[in-house]
Amino acid sequence: MKTIIEPFKIKVVEPIRMTTRSERDAILREAAYNVFLIHARDVLIDLLTDSGTGAMSSEQWSGVMRADESYAGAESFYRFKDRLTQITGFKHVLPTHQGRASERLLFELIGGRDKVVPNNAHFDTTRANVEHSGARAVDLPIAEAGDPRNRHPFKGNMDIDALERLIREVGPESVPAVFVTVTNNSGGGQPVSLENLRAVRRVCDRYRRPMFLDACRFAENAWFIKMRELGQRDRDVRAIVREMFDLADGATISAKKDGIVNIGGVLLLRDEELFHRASNLLILTEGYVTYGGLAGRDLEAMAQGFEEVLHEDYLAYRIRSTAYLGEKLLAAGIQIVEPPGGHAIYVDARAFCPHIPAEQYPGQAVVCGLYRVGGIRAVEIGSVMFGGPGRPPPKMELVRLAIPRRVYTQSHIDYVVEACLELHSERRSLRGLRIIEEPPVLRHFTARFEEL
Fold first, then answer.
1. Which residue, 74, 79, 184, 353, could crosslink 70 as a Cys pair with Cβ 3.0–4.6 Å?
2. Rounded to whole angstroms, how far apart are CA atoms 284 and 239?
């Protein structure tokens, strides 16, 4: 098999400021060992997130220039809406400034006290918006999802039996919607099968509950379905995407992922009455329904980005380039969540530094070590992000290396591998941390730490 090359040429470049290890050590201390608080100029390779960090295409930049910035009824909105309807089949389309704005709108309308929202795995802002409404967020992943070494092809699947038990236990009227996150971000970027989505749909129909997708990475999920699910290999990705959305009653989307834009979100709804209520709330908090807190140029970039993400040569490159990083780390003896995910590689921090207990945040220790050794910024997904008073400990302590779309070349990724190997060789020197300052919610963004 030939090397899968980047299906694009580089037209514009941005310089990277090189730093020394001693400089990075001082920067890390100044940031209180929280890489969110480090200036971007001091980062060599930024794998903090794939959200809004991708490079836009020449066609997207062309759209930026032809955008209609009218307050109401802009042509840019209708191009955006038509593209989303064409891809997903949804007629009720609301733009928002990003995915968490879509979540906030939706859960303000359907959430509330005594409500329970099941999901295969809520990510951070989804969980926070559910809980902010007064509802309870419940994760129902399959058992295989909690074992980093298990190579189940669809570890993002929801546990169907657990979903039924939960609905019967709390009562269908307490479940405003059943969510499925595709791909499963907090569980290692793992995909959800069509078979599992259909099974969730059958449960929702039986109890007359709506099914929603957290569809930030819907195209990547569809590619995994095409590659891994029986009977799907000969189908077009667009057809798989359409079937995924046809199973749902609505979706929240951060366009900063599979929309390949720097800002933007979408809320899709089938229920007309809920759509009108969401429209009124959008006007109150985001902007008029034909711009939703965005400029016309952002709508144009989204319309083009949602088209480009479905190109199969792009998806083959995207998934393969992420797997390249994962395979290199595995070959070097660094345990990751297997098989490699779509948008990121998740390092098993417990296996990386078993001498650091969960209450001393081994994932955060690895994150700090990666920055110190190589100037690489990653993010902890474990007891810092999902732990805290009154919360059950997460099943895994992970470090996510999220790959921005169309930004880094193979040599950049080889550098990341080398830095990970260097850190792994000196892993016994990593020290645990304790939190000295934290906000009441989403503490990983602004918490401050000290090394023990």
1. 74
2. 36
